[in-house]
Design goal:
This protein folds into two domains: about 110 residues, no CATH class; about 140 residues, no CATH class. Helices cover about 45% and strands about 10% of the residues. It has twelve helices and six strands. α3 links the parallel β1 and β2. InterPro entries: DUF3025 (IPR021390).
Length: about 270
């Protein structure tokens, strides 16, 4: 299973250090996850130590998020989806903790029904499919974000490609998104959350940038909650430098880089 992952792809930058720390000697990653969680001092929002346990530990009729909130135990299957989930816990622990707190609170309030409700739905989308789009808070950065939100793909991703690196970054967060990208397809699209940052951020080393984002976004989520309207779509292979052949025609493929729907554009 794990040999399917090509760790050289830039979309795995956010979890590659956590994977390297595991020093896996075999296929049993749950034990390695628990060693790492202990070394990092990970805990859930109730302060309970975080532990990864087999899926069978989840009682029938108990929601997954509710169980993590109540016990600190993360039910984990032997598949890529849950493998990436564990890596994200070790890479963005404060955001994961806050998302779990939001989900557990929604379940406590509304129960487990057919509908998740808007707040829990947004938390699930974030958890599964989010990317963090970090942009320098200046006029050029705001113009880039406006173009992405307007689906002006060529202007944002081709004409402004030199901004990616010095003035804009994409950090993947969603574990389902990472799983899909094991077999990359042009149509794979992230729900991005935009974070405007000051100049000081870009002076930090990558690990310090990641730790800053983890703290900053967790505080934002605690204060503001989550809404599905806050996400901006971004085809992942369109991030400049993340895939070969990114010429103008690449971004003019309207089956992937779709224009904004008329009713969306009018709002």
């Amino acid at each position: 299973m794990l040999p399917q992952i090509d760790w050289s792809h830039p979309w795995y930058d956010s979890v590659r250090p956590a994977f390297a720390r595991l020093a896996l000697g075999g296929p049993d990653f749950i034990a390695a996850f628990n060693r790492s969680a202990l070394a990092l001092g990970l805990c859930n929002h109730e302060g309970l130590p975080l532990r990864f346990v087999p899926q069978a530990a989840l009682p029938e009729g108990t929601a997954y998020e509710e169980f993590i909130g109540a016990t600190g135990q993360v039910p984990t299957r032997d598949n890529l989806h849950d493998f990436f989930n564990g890596l994200v816990w070790q890479s963005f622990p404060l955001i994961k903790r806050q998302l779990n707190a939001l989900q557990a609170a929604q379940i406590a309030q509304a129960g487990i029904g057919k509908s998740r409700g808007p707040a829990r739905d947004a938390a699930t989308i974030f958890d599964e499919n989010a990317a963090l789009l970090v942009v320098r808070a200046n006029s050029a950065g705001r113009a880039l974000v406006d173009e992405l939100r307007g689906h002006c793909w060529l202007a944002a991703l081709f004409d402004k490609r030199a901004m990616f690196g010095p003035d804009a970054q994409v950090w993947l967060f969603g574990h389902a998104l990472m799983e899909k990208l094991v077999a990359p397809r042009k149509a794979i699209t992230a729900h991005t959350r935009v974070i405007f940052v000051g100049d000081d951020y870009f002076l930090l080393a990558p690990e310090a940038q990641q730790a800053w984002l983890d703290r900053h976004v967790a505080v934002q989520l605690a204060g503001e909650g989550l809404h599905t309207s806050g996400f901006t779509p971004l085809p992942v292979l369109g991030v400049p430098g993340w895939w070969p052949g990114q010429d103008q025609d690449f971004y003019l493929d309207a089956t992937v880089f779709r224009p904004k729907r008329q009713h969306q554009a009018s709002h």
